[in-house]
Amino acid sequence: MTTPCVAIVGGGLSGLYAALRLTQAGIDFRLLEARERLGGRIHSGYSSAGATDTASAFDLGPSWFWPDFQPLMTRLTADLNLATFPQYTDGDMVVERAQSLPPQRMAGFDQGNLSLRIAGGTSALIQALVARIHPERLLLNHPVTAARLVGDSIHLDVDNRPEAGAPLAFSHLLLAAPPRLLAGSLDIQPPLRPQERNHWVDMPTWMAPHAKYVAIYDAPFWRQQGLSGMARSMVGPLAEIHDATSAKGQAALFGFVGVPADVRQRLGPEALKHHCRTQLERLFGPQAGAPLDEHLKDWASDPFTATAADREPGDHPVATVDLSQVTGPWAGRMMLISSEAALEQPGYMEGALQATARILPLLERLNAGSSRF
Predict the structure, then answer these.
(1) Backbone φ and ψ of 52, nearest 5°
(2) 154-159 contacts: CB < 8 A, separation 24 or more?
(3) pLDDT band per the 50, 70, 90 thresholds, residue 55
(4) Is the pTM of this model over 0.70?
């Protein structure tokens, strides 16, 4: 293969950021995404009145970034001309300590660092990236099941690929999916060295054990009561709740579900949403129990995010080794660029950009015709 053609496996933030930088460098590539949508763990629910209008998009994955210590996210949102706004924190918070005790209203607190949200939700970031990438290079419904090194080429097998014929062939491979998921779903030949594969398996996937609930209202009535929308609960099912009102003023609350994945599965989504509504009514009053719309995203049941090992509550990813570089036959051919591969802030959106940015000094080698990163 005389002309480098890079394969990117995974169409979340790291994969799309890599696609943008390859586009800017003039390097040919194809991005293969298993889902029928792009964004990965960045995903939105919408109010029925707004359909898919970004003004009515509500984050079911990551919601915030922190400009004080996340310079790549700050720079990227500015470069993409995305409007941002502060997370609403004015007013008191509500604390629920036990079923036998009524919720308590307490003074709010300064979280220390400014939390910013993107107008239109984090999905607006994905849409802005996609708009700068040639659509023919973005292949949806392409779950990659195997990667084989054959001479100077990398052959990828794709499950359910509509066209028959030979496997897709590339010069280099960027893996933009969670390492634990890849270890269980991608047949790599020649195989990774056992120690490297074990590092992939041991790295927790951020968001994978969690579920997120959003309730949408016609007005942010809690603000009128002097409440910030923030709550903490030891009763549940929501353990942590925040104001999710959009930049355009569409009112919403969201919460992280504190119930383990196996219990959520036994309950089922409708019963769990009922318990969430009941809790919000308990904390914020009758209006909170009757949302206009609601969304529940259980990441533990998403086969393109979580594995069986992710069903147990897990720690945030911590970089103890450099996951990005592989050794052996794949050295110089394959790199891991998912957020979990970041040496700093793994699991965050900033981590996705940091992990991907590590390929940038290597792009010059590809442009110069090198066969290796």
Answers:
(1) -105, 25
(2) 154/7, 154/333, 154/334, 156/7, 156/9, 156/32, 157/187, 158/32
(3) low
(4) yes
Burial 72-110 (b: 16+ CB within 10 A, else e): bbbebbeebebebeebbbebbbbbbeeeeeebeeeeeee
**Ordered domains of the chain (ranges, CATH):** 1-42+122-207+314-373 (3.50.50.60), 52-121+209-301 (3.90.660.10)
Residue 74 · residue 348 · CB < 8 Å: no
| Interatomic CA distance for residues 71 and 85, integer angstroms | 16
Cβ contact 124:54 at 8 Å? yes
**The pLDDT of residue 1:** 41
Answer yes or no: are the C-beta atoms of 241 and 283 closer than 8 Å: yes
The pLDDT > 70 percentage for the chain reads 92
Among left, alpha and beta (phi > 0; psi -120 to 50; other), residue 222 is alpha
Which DSSP category does 139 fall into?
A: E
